[in-house]
Amino acid sequence: MISRRTLLLGGLSLAALAGCAGTPQPPTSSSDPAEPLPPVTDRIDALRRRHNAEIGLYAVDLDSGREIAVGDGDTYALCSTFKAYASAAILQRAQQGRLSLTDAVPVERADIQPHSPVTEPRVGTTMTLAELCQAALQQSDNAAGNLLLRTLGGPPAITEFARSVGDDRSRLDRWETALNSAVPGDPRDTSTPRALGTGFRTVLAGDALDGAHRQQLDTWMRANATSSMRAGLPAGWSTADKTGSGGYGTTNDVGIAYGPQGQRWLLSIMTRAVGDDPEAPNMRELIGEIASVVVAELHQPQ
């Protein structure tokens, strides 16, 4: 049998526990919303270690000029990000009257490359330059990318265009899909986050295109179905961006994020896996996490 003394002691203990449970506890420092975030370099380093990745980041608030740069001068493979330059160059030539977006381009069986979801069903017919730009930007269609390159005069035309929009590092040497080999140390088909971001800023928010053609590029890119950075942005945001992926886990996403209060943030994110495995998986999840870091940092008061 339980003694009267045990019952009394038990009752006192329960009362004490109830009192503790009902007393609000001060928040820990880690949950204090007013506590400053760790340095952005520390947060990027943590992502680098967790994903076993190399990370290059260049971000700019286009209205305030505030920048975030981590490894922004390191070299990465361009992969399919070149398709934004190819489409912008087509638009620029249309603006100059050198071609028309309605010009028809034959699509032959020999043109089809792996991942050509839009062009492959069109074999034996023609596609307009506008349709090819849309396929290249929104679905990253590889045959469309090559057909745009052919129209422009081949990969060197992309290098030339890059220089014309303030990008001093990007170079394109090969065609799809060879340009995606992304072998570390190979200088072909490469850029840096800062150089590529600078060029994208010029074509999407600068004077490389007139208003109508710049708006067309923005409209196409806002409908990009392959975006990785959007996963890290708050609700209500949109992006005009272009992705690229290749060997050694190379995964890129570059463009402008637009916020509901009129924010315009350029994000140029280039990544690859550490190591020498050409079949390393892509880093799409990491791209979204880096975008989240940028959002948190740019929301911080200076």
UniProtKB/TrEMBL annotation:
Protein keywords: Antibiotic resistance, Hydrolase, Signal
Signal peptide coordinates: 1-18
Family in the record: Belongs to the class-A beta-lactamase family.
Highest taxon, organism lineage: Bacteria
Pfam families reported for this sequence: Beta-lactamase2 (PF13354)
UniProt cross-references to InterPro entries, sorted A to Z: Beta-lactam/transpept-like, Beta-lactam_cat, Beta-lactam_class-A, Beta-lactam_class-A_AS, TAT_signal
Region described as Disordered: 20-40
Gene name of this polypeptide: blaF_1
Name listed for the protein in its UniProt record: Beta-lactamase
GO MF annotations, alphabetized: beta-lactamase activity
PROSITE patterns found in the cross-reference section: BETA_LACTAMASE_A, PROKAR_LIPOPROTEIN, TAT
Every Beta-lactamase class A catalytic domain range: 56-271
Keyword Kinase: no
Catalyzed reaction equations: a beta-lactam + H2O = a substituted beta-amino acid
EC primary class: hydrolase
The enzyme's E.C. designation: 3.5.2.6
GO biological process: beta-lactam antibiotic catabolic process; response to antibiotic
SUPFAM superfamilies: beta-lactamase/transpeptidase-like (SSF56601)
